[in-house]
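To fix ideas, we quote verbatim one protein's residues and fold tokens.
>
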Amino acid sequence: MENKSSWKSEKTGIVITINNIFCKGCDICVQICPTEVLEMIDTIDRWEGAVAVVKDMDACTGCMKCEVQCPDFAIAVFDPKKDKKKVTA
């Protein structure tokens, strides 16, 4: 398994990146997601036994609940519609 995995929705442009080194398999992100974007998969190369992955990227609304609630900062959500760098005064 690679250190980071990224998924992009072709429909919304939202990108979710999961750092597989930081993910401890706690399942908080899966439980908190209101649209069931994430799931846990078993992995033999981690002592925790599982990591979070995206199962339905197009269902992501960019609410960022998974990113905010992750205790290990393993998830990053980028929504181009909410990118503050593009906002001009």
Observations:
- Strands lie at 4-8, 15-19, 38-42, 50-54, 75-78.
- The chain has one domain: 4-80.
- Residues 25 and 51 are 5 Å apart (CA to CA).
- The chain is about 10% helix and 25% strand.
